[in-house]
Amino acid sequence: MNRIVTDKDTAAARKVFVKTYGCQMNVYDSQRMADALAAEGYVATEAIEDADLVLLNTCHIREKAAEKVYSELGRIRGIKAEREQAGRETLIGVAGCVAQAEGEEIIRRAPVVDLVIGPQTYHRLPDVVKKARAGAKVVETEYAIEDKFAHLPGQQAKAVRARGVTAFLTVQEGCDKFCTFCVVPYTRGSEVSRPVSQIVDEARRLADAGVREITLLGQNVNAWHGAGPDGREWGLGELLFKLAEVPGVARLRYTTSHPRDMDDALIAAHRDLKALMPYLHLPVQSGSDRILKAMNRKHTAAEYLQLIERIRTAQPDIAMSGDFIVGFPGESDADFADTMTIVREVGYAQAFSFKYSPRPGTPASERGEQVAEAVKNERLQELQALLTKQQHAFAESLVGREIDLLLEKHGRHAGQLIGRSPWLQPVIVDENAGGIGDIVPVRITRTGANSLFAEGV
Ligand code: SAH
Ligand code: SF4
Ligand code: F3S
What we know:
Elements: H1 7-11, E1 14-20, H2 24-38, E2 42-44, E3 53-58, H3 63-85, E4 91-95, H4 96-102, H5 105-109, E5 115-117, H6 125-133, E6 138-140, H7 148-151, H8 157-163, E7 166-170, E8 172-173, H9 184-187, E9 192-193, H10 196-208, E10 213-217, E11 225-227, E12 233-235, H11 236-244, E13 251-255, H12 264-272, E14 279-281, H13 289-294, H14 301-314, E15 319-326, H15 333-346, E16 350-355, H16 373-397, E17 402-410, E18 416-420, E19 426-430, E20 439-447, E21 452-456
Helix pairs in contact: 11-12, 15-16
The structure holds S-adenosyl-L-homocysteine, iron/sulfur cluster and FE3-S4 cluster.
């Protein structure tokens, strides 16, 4: 690599631009990577043209996710060429699940890339960047033996403060469930839980920096189990009670959960722990037992419905959210009708639905009976119409009701603040309602396209 290092280069801080695709876990990882690089003298920038290091934190969950990355790399090639012509160092890195899945292939397909780093090795990022700066092409996708979380710098107060009053905290990573459609077990490795002490320390640092609401993250967050300070093994329910004691932490959430890991202690937390918000993302994927079996979800539609009934008995106010896949190989009209039925029976406040996308290396991708694209489109439209209707109906049902609102930031229009309802909806109020970070009682007055409007009470 032809690089001209000037005095100016060494004096001024180097800049890193991070772009995040995919799930909330990637959002969390991007912040931690920025923290790790800050310790090496990199400051974050929002302008890609100014970046000495561009990091794409990628997602591999569906087809278009990886394609978007390659087209972005094409665009970046021009920026890099221009900068290098002006004698400015420009390193391009690919992190995340595409990095893990594709490895060296990324550099072959996009030679503009200097470094590839998988999610299990982010604590080695400063080292990898050093090697890349010295001119090497680096691919780091081996599963690391050491604990990534223990070696990444903790959430820095200054950085957290700039990010606001809500924060993510990864407590569990990886997946051992091997649903037949899913790449996550291959890209994120097997299930690992962080110990209680590490999680509580991080929650304290977040709260000290002004965070009021923490969302615990994990690919299977409710499968979290960790060594407690008492030497016993704790489950997520117990952890939530412990985190609610951290001064400053007013609200807790967790995502994403698997129906098979909802244990009694966690359901009891929904009943007894006021700080735990009455909102649960519990994907079912399909309402057909035949398809659920082929997906290796290891539960039936009836079991899912019974589980929700138990949760609703414990916390009648709970709003359900979910994920759905249409057009899984072999899905018939009758199977799809079962999905529509389960959606009607549950009544979702919010949901995500996707067309099945064959992922290389997963069992479902190798099956015959792939569903035609046109059929997938039709089913997705029908399902989304129903889910949107349910979402609006839920929002409408809140009009007139008094709720607690966590004020998060200024709104788009002067004089407005935006907060979050207990059910994750954005709520717009007059700025006289309180200060950012306050939790204030408000009354919902009407619904907007994607938000609610409220007045102080
Ligand atoms: N661990 C979570 C989901 C993680 S992936 C769970 O088990 O519920 C997030 C969502 O992406 C999944 O719930 C699923 O709906 C969707 N998804 C995963 N793989 C997919 C694929 N191959 N095609 C389409 N959607 C997929
Ligand atoms: Fe993927 Fe299934 Fe694991 Fe969720 S539980 S991450 S869908 S393999
Ligand atoms: Fe995507 Fe990896 Fe998350 S595939 S959804 S970034 S775990």
